Amino acid sequence: MANNEALNKFKILVVDDDASIRQMLSLGLKHEGYDVLTAKNGEEALRVIPEFEPHVIILDIMMPVLDGYEVCEAIPKISSASIIMLTAKDSSQDIVKGLRMGANDYLVKPFHFEELLARIEVQLRNRFPDLTGQKTLGRFTINEFQKTISLDGQVLQLSPTEYKLLSYMFWNANKTLSKENILLHVWGYDFEGEDNIVEVYIRYLREKLGDSAHELIKTVRGLGYRLQTE
After folding, report:
1. Which domains does the chain have, with CATH numbers?
2. CA 131 → CA 19, 89, 164, 173, distances in Å?
3. Which of 51, 64, 59 has its CA nearest to residue 84?
4. Dist CA 219 CA 230 (whole Å)
């Protein structure tokens, strides 16, 4: 998992009067590493936008106080955020109206969460090209949009767990990480597997990195492991 700075780089505001949708999207997006704030109506959204400064706003249309169209029209005056309208209204007339009012994209309920994630990533790439999900440290480059890590320009073929482990070490490069912290951040609080799982996956990573000499992933005796990028 990335460090707090990386996790909080992209901010998303969810505006919906349905509490269950706000909760579902908040939990899902936070799990993906986004910094998330919710608002239950348009008036609340316009109040929090200047302070929160979201990159993407997921905006329902049918809301009390101020509907989504009114909010969409007001947002450009206070924010450069991309707007993804999220609504049950699926007629072409509604879609065209939303886009003309300033929306950048449109997603009809019910929807697949994975599709929403993809649309968010598109907006971030197109609207904020300076905020890419890519960072290079030494011989390593991580792309958080594509969930890939490269060594010397070659993408490593990593399992999901190997990616999580190497990503966590990347964002904490040149720091010694204890096995306990690695276990917590990669496998979670409720892991009940073998105690040597960290050693096993460190070995897997070293094999894929061609690091038989342990020059990239160093063992710090009695303390843990360190990804060396300097």
Report:
1. 4-127 (3.40.50.2300), 134-227 (1.10.10.10)
2. 30, 32, 21, 21
3. 59
4. 16
> Is 206 in contact with 226 (CB distance < 8 Å)?
no
Q: Which two tokens stand for residue 183?
A: 């276990």
Q: What angle do CA 180, 185, 189 make, to 5 degrees?
A: 75
8-40 confidence digits (pLDDT tens): 478 999 999 999 999 999 999 998 889 999 999
Among 223, 143, 135, residue whose Cα is nearest residue 173? 135
pLDDT of residue 181: 84
Amino acid at 20: S
Which one-letter amino acid corresponds to residue 91?
Answer: S
> What pTM was estimated for this model as a whole?
0.56
Q: How far apart are CA 103 and CA 81, in angstroms?
A: 10
Question: How do residues 143-161 score in pLDDT, each as one tens digit?
Answer: 877 789 999 999 999 999 9
Q: Which two tokens stand for residue 142?
A: 């991580």
Strands 82-87 and 224-227, by their bridges, are unpaired
